[in-house]
Design brief:
globular; about 35% helix; Rossmann fold; 4 domains; alpha/beta; about 600 residues
């Protein structure tokens, strides 16, 4: 065993490898992505790894591996669990033979998500046990335990790190590669009475699941992860306690060091809830503060137990306003809540009153081809009644001024359906649906099929930058690469669309502004479903071209280059436009719209 300085996600990956995982699959999504990427980098020859086309497919692949007796890990963020929920709900009723761990990284804040979903709630809903690590070290240890737990009880198991656990760094004690388990599996055994889900089987298994989870509540009460930290010092006789779990528990333990060591319950398995351990903790207390994120899961369980066992304990937390109802907990917010609960002063800090950090909203990168794509559509549709339905990815940032080209954004692939819904009711409005190349494969295909079948009328715009850019440039079916390092045939977006029945499919480089605008004008007025593929690689995949320069003698100070496209490489100083050579990639878009011809160099497409 040795120590490594690891991100939490890296620790989880190494824990899975140490447990002898045989197959790892998933779909990229912050804050979960680095788990699979680390497995791909550190795996042995016997481990299969892939980025699946979406989370539903990944869950089914992992389920198939677990049917064969293998140890399988499937990774996603909390939004991806929505996509994977169909097979997961059924997998819990069917059960597994090998170990199946479902890593779902929750995103309190949210920092990079549409929602603040709490996977602990989904665990209760789906009746799937959940492990909730509080640190990188615990995440490493827990995933190994989760595989054993899954195999013993023949159930999928959630591992639910939150952003601060997934992306925090720490020195983690890990096994040496020669100490890793080797998990052998005997393959799939045909037995339709077990593997074919029919109502009668579901009914019988539902009863078994409920009985098993009641038993697991007792088993998990003896799990070292669910423990009581005793009160010490000034709080040795206190009748107050704190219950916590996940990253919030780490904050609580820091608060104990400065504010006083009050009695504390650590909950590592929020479902099935460790009832006996919790009742032991509650006995003899008058008040308990529950510190958790995101939903009041521990809080409601303790309230229920107080009623069940007639315990006169007042439970405080999110429902009483003592802990914020939304957003992530921080060291400072937990310190303030614990100090107020214990009626002790907060220690003074030496930092003094610091000014708030400047707000820096995310923007499309300098030279991003999505900026050119949005601008081309905007110019082509100027003056017309149009709606632009966006999607999840870098291109969501097209909503920012001055582009202002994302009117709706819901979830992956939803722009296609929203455009159709509006079109069916507002025939006088031109509808556009934007989707990225990775999202096209992940979730857009049913929307296109539905549109063709139901004779909708809208323009699909595929923003193809040859990667899954927002989550770190992972490959997808259109890139011709896999996570196993294989080079495969690229799947053609054009061929797919034509195969579905889209008769008009135009591919154009958005950095050729005149050609792009003309393509939009011609395509948008055609009847039915039509598609424009704007194809230009992400700037992270290509070396910059020669940077543009701005001739101050020719520049008339009109600011059109700045007002129209909002490129962060352009600024204004001394009455003239200025191009920052450190940011400029030489895409040449600004040169094509300068009315004075003052911008030179770069990749000229006009």
């Amino acid at each position: 065993m040795h120590a490594e300085f690891l991100m939490g996600n890296e620790a989880i990956a190494l824990g899975a490898l140490a447990a002898g995982v045989n197959l790892v699959c998933g779909y990229p999504g912050t804050p979960s992505t680095e788990v699979l990427e680390t497995v791909a980098k550190r795996r042995g020859e016997s481990v299969y790894v892939e980025w699946s086309v979406n989370e539903k497919t990944a869950m089914e692949i992992a389920g198939g591996a677990a049917y064969a007796g293998a140890r399988a890990l499937v990774t996603m963020k909390q939004m991806g669990l929505n996509v994977a929920s169909d097979p997961l709900m059924c997998l819990e009723y069917i059960g597994v033979k090998g170990g199946l761990v479902v890593l779902v990284a929750d995103d309190p804040g949210p920092i990079s998500s549409q929602t603040e979903q709490d996977t602990r709630r989904f665990a209760s809903f789906s009746k799937v046990p959940v492990f909730d690590p509080s640190s990188a070290q615990e995440a490493y240890d827990m995933i190994r335990e989760a595989f054993r737990f899954s195999e013993e009880y023949r159930t999928p198991v959630f591992l639910r790190p939150t952003t601060r656990v997934s992306h925090g760094y720490a020195a983690v004690q890990v096994l040496d590669p020669e100490e890793y388990e080797t998990h052998t599996y005997d393959g799939f055994e045909k037995d339709s009475s077990r593997w074919v889900i029919f109502p009668r089987l579901s009914f019988a298994n539902h009863r078994k699941i409920e009985e098993r989870n009641a038993h697991l509540s007792d088993v998990l009460s003896d799990n070292p992860g669910n423990r009581i930290e005793p009160a010490e010092g000034a709080f040795a006789e206190s009748r107050k306690g704190i219950a916590s779990g996940g990253f919030s528990y780490t904050c609580v333990m820091e608060a104990r060091e400065t504010l006083g060591k009050v009695r504390t319950l650590k909950v590592s398995t929020p479902f099935p809830f460790p009832e006996k351990k919790a009742v032991e903790f509650l006995s003899g207390l008058d008040e308990v503060l529950c510190v958790e994120e995101l939903d009041p899961v521990i809080e409601r369980e303790l309230i229920y137990l107080c009623g069940k066992y007639g315990l006169p304990v007042r439970i405080l937390g999110k429902q009483t306003g003592h802990i914020a109802l939304s957003g992530e907990n921080t060291r400072d917010s937990v310190n303030a809540a614990v100090a107020a609960f214990l009626s002790v002063p907060l220690p003074e800090t030496s930092a003094g009153d610091l000014p708030p950090l400047p707000v820096r909203p995310p923007v499309l990168c300098a030279g991003c081809p999505h900026r050119a794509s949005f601008y081309a559509v905007k110019q082509a549709m100027k003056g017309r009644k149009t709606i632009f339905c966006g999607d999840i990815g870098c291109y969501t940032l097209g909503n920012a001024m001055p582009l202002d080209m994302v009117d709706t954004c819901l979830c992956m692939g939803a722009g296609l359906g929203i455009a159709q819904g509006i079109n069916h009711l507002e025939k006088d409005r031109s509808c556009f649906a934007f989707v990225g190349d990775s999202t096209f494969f992940a979730s857009a295909l049913p929307g296109v099929v539905n549109a063709v079948y139901n004779q909708a009328e809208f323009t699909l715009v595929v923003l193809d930058n040859s990667t899954t850019a927002m989550t770190g440039h992972q490959p997808h079916p259109g890139t011709g690469r896999t996570m196993m390092g294989n080079v495969v045939d690229k799947i053609s977006i054009e061929n797919i669309l034509r195969g579905i029945g889209v008769t008009e499919v135009v591919t154009v480089n958005p950095l050729n502004l005149a050609e792009a605008v003309e393509a939009v004008r011609k395509t948008a007025d055609l009847p039915g479903v039509k598609a424009i593929i704007f194809r230009s690689p992400c700037i992270a995949l290509t070396k910059p071209h020669s940077r543009v320069t701005i001739d101050p003698e020719k520049c008339v100070g009109c600011k059109k280059c700045i007002r129209e496209i909002g490129c962060p490489a352009l600024s204004f100083a001394g009455g003239k436009a200025v191009a920052d050579p450190a940011q400029c990639t030489g895409c040449g878009l600004c040169a094509q719209l300068c009315p004075a011809g003052a911008i030179e160099g770069g990749e000229q497409h006009a």
